[in-house]
Design a protein that fits this description.
Length: 245
């Protein structure tokens, strides 16, 4: 895709009814003077979200004025019907799309390699529910650990083949990202917290976000998909140039 044909990729966030998809104020524990905020809607079991996250990070690293950007992750559930215990990945995809999903895996692995991700679907066997993971991520925001926690979850699932719906794994990761064991355990056992996560994801869906990853830059420009890094850089340039006026 031509990175200069931005009109076909990014569009004004005001095209959506923002009131129906309320972007929560970021609650990071440190004060920031960054001119850039990026809101990311994604699901941890979405490989394109993993790739998009890497391309965003690499694009931010190309600009000194973007390296301190505030990045806020929001809940999105690709399949809200996945039970708490999860499903077999290959059987689920075969039912949904028909046929063997291995060709699909090969295409995604090739795209991941282009971004320096050694994705190997042979390691990934389950399609877990991500409600609990998103619940913890929502609370990691105010601790200032949300971004590294997201990265750890993506790595655990796609690179290590771990079940990120497993409570023990989530507890272990949460403790490494600013939670006490008791705090994380209480969140995972709280039905109201799980309901809030599902409601957040539903609001995102109903607001017009029909696919992920979905990125919003300074609540002005937005695009969906794991676009080439050049697209991220182009949008960052537009938004930051405007912020500096």
């Amino acid at each position: 895709m031509d990175p200069n044909s931005m009109g076909t990729v990014a569009y004004r966030w005001s095209a959506f009814e923002v009131a129906d998809c309320r972007l929560r104020p970021y609650e990071v524990s440190t004060v920031t003077t960054s001119p850039l905020r990026v809101d990311v809607f994604s699901d941890i079991v979405c490989p394109w979200c993993f790739i998009g996250r890497k391309r965003l990070r690499d694009a931010l690293d190309t600009r000194d004025d973007a390296r301190d950007a505030v990045v806020v992750h929001h809940s999105y559930l690709l399949d809200p019907s996945v039970p708490k215990e999860g499903l077999d990945l290959r059987a689920t995809l075969a039912r949904k799309y028909g046929g063997d999903p291995e060709r699909m895996f090969a295409d995604v692995e090739a795209a991941a390699r282009e971004s320096g991700i050694t994705l190997d679907f042979k390691k990934v066997e389950r399609m877990p529910s991500t409600v609990d993971a998103h619940t913890l991520l929502r609370h990691a925001d105010k601790k200032g650990t949300q971004v590294p926690f997201v990265d750890a979850l993506f790595d655990a699932y796609f690179l290590n083949g771990q079940d990120i719906g497993d409570a023990n794994l989530l507890l272990a990761l949460a403790v490494k990202h600013g939670f006490s064991h008791d705090e994380a355990e209480a969140l995972l056992q709280d039905d109201a917290e799980r309901a809030q996560t599902k409601e957040d994801a539903l609001q995102a869906s109903q607001s017009g976000i029909s696919g992920v990853p979905f990125f919003i830059f300074n609540e002005e420009l937005a695009f969906s998909g794991a676009q080439p890094q050049a697209i991220f850089e182009k949008v960052l340039g537009q938004v930051l140039d405007k912020a500096s006026e």
